[in-house]
Design goal:
The complex is a heterodimer of chains A (260) and B (119). By secondary structure, chain A is mostly helical. In chain A, 72% of the residues lie in helices and 0% in strands. Chain A is built from 8 helices and no strands. Classes of the chains: A mainly alpha (260), B mainly alpha (119).
Chain lengths: 260, 119
């Protein structure tokens, strides 16, 4: 809490800390009178973790040095348009070069072709990671906590992908699939697109995971594995383009009808 | 992304419902943890709403004027040997917003039922 309230006015920090401390105290006191400590410890941890994206979003909503009501800033539709555009650009960069890079192995990473491969990998990874994070933080109020958490983790690892942290190839699709699935339930994204995105994400993760964990050593994996992985990654990239394009007008800003 | 001003998400509607429920039971105001428990029961959820999600929603509802809050006297908390509590109560605006949300939900479910009948 000290981390995400840093830089805020003392009163705002104290109020936030006191309110959560009071909640924690009541929960522990309740548990002491009823269920065991082990169960409450787990519940507190889960509540803490699932609320982190909302904490971060709350932090960004606080004007520095000025507690109180937050003024409306900027055009919200423009935010949505920008994220949609980043989705299209990131997806296109992946669609163009990721598959050839996998299929052609070392030859895709040398000379001029290698520079282009690296450049598009960088743009693709950055684009899709930022798009995932953008969708998460743009919908933080209504996304399920688990979808937000998976999206934030996936987006974070995706940013490291261009630096050689290939776990992003598993965690980014898992995270973005969770977010898209949730957004489809909120009618922000069409269910067909969410299915396509989730399907290609699952295929990518299932194919990349054995290679990353050395369950299938890359050196001994058959060509078929790499062809399938390339196809899955192409599908994943195309689904991003489709999602970004479908939301290009910024319509994902619309709030779904409130229900009880 | 900012939501449309005044638009309520399901959690916020549940919080208003919970505040109204608490008031019906004769309690004028309620602190965050108690509210979280009522929300959990209303939503038939297994767990309490996450800290960040709950207090961000409460913060937003208060900014919209649907809830009002006050901190209890520090001495009371000190006497009872616990942290001070922030109490929330449903405002008139909150009650109106809740009624509108209920009406909207009824319209939505009626529309779905009509569509299902046509199909």
């Amino acid at each position: 809490m000290a981390a995400y309230t840093r830089g805020l006015p003392a009163e705002v920090r104290r109020d936030r800390a006191d309110e959560i401390e009071s909640d924690l105290w009541s929960e522990i006191a309740d548990a002491a009178a009823g269920s065991g400590e082990g169960a409450v410890g787990k519940d507190i941890l889960v509540r803490l973790l699932l609320g982190m994206p909302a904490d971060i979003r709350w932090r960004f909503d606080q004007p520095p040095g000025a507690p109180g009501p937050v003024p409306t800033v900027g055009d919200p539709t423009m935010y949505a348009r920008n994220i949609s555009m980043i989705s299209v650009i990131g997806g296109a960069a992946w669609a163009i070069w990721i598959a050839p890079a996998i299929l052609f192995g070392d030859n895709a990473w040398v000379g001029t072709i290698g520079m282009i491969t690296m450049f598009t990998l960088l743009i693709g990874s950055l684009g899709l990671s930022l798009a995932t994070l953008g969708f998460v933080f743009g919908n933080i109020d209504r996304l399920h906590g688990i979808a937000s958490l998976l999206g934030a983790i996936g987006g974070g690892f995706g940013l490291l992908l261009a630096g050689g942290v290939y776990w992003g190839m598993v965690l980014l699709p898992v995270g973005s699939a969770a977010v898209m699935w949730n957004l489809a339930r909120l009618r922000v994204v069409s269910s067909k697109l969410a299915w396509a995105h989730a399907g290609s994400s699952v295929a990518t993760s299932l194919l990349a995971l054995p290679l990353l964990t050395n369950l299938i050593p890359p050196a001994s994996a058959g060509v078929a594995v790499f062809v399938l992985l390339a196809l899955a990654l192409e599908g994943y990239a195309l689904s991003w383009i489709a999602v970004g394009w479908s939301l290009r007008a910024g319509t994902w800003m619309q709030e779904e009808p409130a229900t009880t | 992304m900012r939501r449309k001003s005044g638009a309520l998400i399901p959690l916020e509607v549940s919080i208003l419902e919970a505040s109204a429920e608490v008031r019906r039971s004769g309690q004028a105001e309620v602190h965050g943890y108690e509210l979280a428990k009522v929300v959990r029961d209303l939503r038939h959820a297994r767990r309490l709403t996450a800290y960040g999600t709950l207090y961000k929603a409460l913060n937003r509802l208060e900014r919209q004027g649907y809830l009002a809050s006050r901190w209890e006297e520090p001495q009371i908390a000190a006497d009872e040997g616990r942290p001070r509590r922030r109490f929330y109560r449903l405002t008139l605006e909150g009650e109106i917003a809740l009624n509108e949300a209920r009406a909207e939900a009824r319209r939505t479910s009626a529309g779905r039922a009509a569509a299902a009948t046509v199909e």
